[in-house]
Amino acid sequence: MINQQEDSLDNVLRDDWFVVCTAQRVTAFVTTTKLLGRPVAIWREEDGPVAAPYPSSKERYRAMDRYGYTWVSLGEPKAPLFLLPEFDQPGRRLIDCGAFGVRTSGLRMIENFLDMGHFPYVHTEILGKEPHTEVKEYRVALDDNDELWATDCVFWQPKAAAAASSGMDVHYTYRVMQPFSAILYKSSPARPDERDVIALFVQPLSGVESRAHLMMLLYDEAHNDTELIAFQQTIFGQDKPILENQLPARLPLGARAETPARADAASIAYRRWLQRRGVTFGTVTSA
């Protein structure tokens, strides 16, 4: 039996940072959005972005600009935002791929981001192709900052990036910094000694509604922004209907709710990591 959780606000999420939009979209004019089921107003003053409950009151939420986005916390963050040194690395292009609404839990979106097994079936002729369906064994571990890392990931892909001209074994490293934020470091066709960076920052509107903010930091001088964005939007467009048809929409955290395979080591670790942190927003538990 599945027990659906109420969308109560977990302390760990109240005190976390979330992307709400690109920094350049925050102006002196008030705009509204939602975060963790709460209506939020946001605007810019001389010293930076401002966020408040909507309709606005004297109360203020914490807000800041970082990595090209505006981040908001509904509580009191206990630690600084994660580091992303590649953001300031010379030669990398910052590509904002846009924001995409998806009718599912944001945790489902992060889990899908970590899943290599669906590449040949959902992203056929791009990120995967039969009979190259094997997910080779990889390593999953926590670092000293309690970030979740999946390393030594290798998967053959027909067209791993817009800059790829042929199929290749692609090396992946996944990093989950926050329950709703993850980064993929993957082989760079244009710079073999470096890794391209693809970041997924999920804005949980409610327990079953989310907005995905996608960013890339690439070495690619052969394609313009429109071509690079179109490639990434094609990938996300293929994921969207799959995500919206997964049932239940909230991520199951019960031990017997869903049976993972060996290839799902990152998913298993991610669910355990969420449970240990006390995350219940956007989840269901098995009774």
From TrEMBL:
Keywords: Oxidoreductase. Its EC number is 1.14.13.128. It holds the Pfam family VanA_C. It is an enzyme of class 1 (oxidoreductase). Residues 106-276 form the Vanillate O-demethylase oxygenase-like C-terminal catalytic domain. InterPro entries: Cholesterol_7-desaturase, VanA_C_cat. One of its GO terms (molecular function) is oxidoreductase activity. It comes from the Bacteria. This is Methylxanthine N7-demethylase NdmC. It comes from Paraburkholderia domus. The lineage of its organism: Bacteria, Pseudomonadati, Pseudomonadota, Betaproteobacteria, Burkholderiales.
